[in-house]
Amino acid sequence: IRILRSIGIVSLLAVSFCLLFSFEGAWSEYVHLPTYAETVPFPPVNECVEHHVVLVLGGYKTINLAAVLFKSLMFHHRGPLVFHFIADQKARQVLHTLFDTWQLPSVRYQIYEMETYKKEVDWVPNTHYSSWYDLMRLAIPEILPADVKEVLFLDTDIVVLDDISPLFDTFKGTNDSVLFSMTENLSPWYQQKGHWPARGRGFNAGVLLLHTERMRKANW
């Protein structure tokens, strides 16, 4: 009985010490939780890469749509962003107020007067409901500065659900003949609308990655 009692006391002490140390470890982890910067280190400043995004904006209603796009994009994106806005007069009035009021760190924007470049695309026969506005994306390599080598074009009616950074890896390992990147339409909606000139479902021009440097060299 004495032996069993001694074993019981030793076991009780061992269990107590285990519980004590495990509780202390758990409490230590709770109190000294690492910050987000410690668990997911941001890249050094000299390794940050600015990603360029371009939008075509016409009218006040377009800005209402684009505001949702801006917020969802910046919510998920890490690193500096540069917006390029090809905008008409009404949109320009709102954009300045919007971004100057937000005062976002690591976000720059540049606005281009759409009217200046209208002649580049309005000669193209077009029955699209957005008229020549929809064709302005064809002139992006000419409109944007020469130091912008890659840019992501986005339609305004988009909600971003993840970081767009991996999209810019698309051109890695490709040769100079690859000028832009698109994806197929996932929805049969356009085919159901009647006459649809594209092969199959066609491509989605609302998310368009452009290698503007190569496009200029190719005299796009």
Automatic annotation (TrEMBL):
<dbReference type="InterPro" id="IPR051292">
    <property type="entry name" value="Xyl/GlcA_transferase"/>
</dbReference>
<dbReference type="GO" id="GO:0000139">
    <property type="term" value="C:Golgi membrane"/>
</dbReference>
<dbReference type="GO" id="GO:0015020">
    <property type="term" value="F:glucuronosyltransferase activity"/>
</dbReference>
<keyword id="KW-0333">Golgi apparatus</keyword>
<dbReference type="GO" id="GO:0035269">
    <property type="term" value="P:protein O-linked glycosylation via mannose"/>
</dbReference>
<keyword id="KW-0735">Signal-anchor</keyword>
<dbReference type="InterPro" id="IPR029044">
    <property type="entry name" value="Nucleotide-diphossugar_trans"/>
</dbReference>
<keyword id="KW-0325">Glycoprotein</keyword>
<protein>
    <recommendedName>
        <fullName>Glycosyltransferase</fullName>
    </recommendedName>
</protein>
<dbReference type="InterPro" id="IPR002495">
    <property type="entry name" value="Glyco_trans_8"/>
</dbReference>
<keyword id="KW-0812">Transmembrane</keyword>
<keyword id="KW-0472">Membrane</keyword>
<feature type="signal peptide">
    <location>
        <begin position="1"/>
        <end position="28"/>
    </location>
</feature>
<keyword id="KW-0732">Signal</keyword>
<dbReference type="Pfam" id="PF01501">
    <property type="entry name" value="Glyco_transf_8"/>
</dbReference>
<keyword id="KW-1133">Transmembrane helix</keyword>
<dbReference type="GO" id="GO:0042285">
    <property type="term" value="F:xylosyltransferase activity"/>
</dbReference>
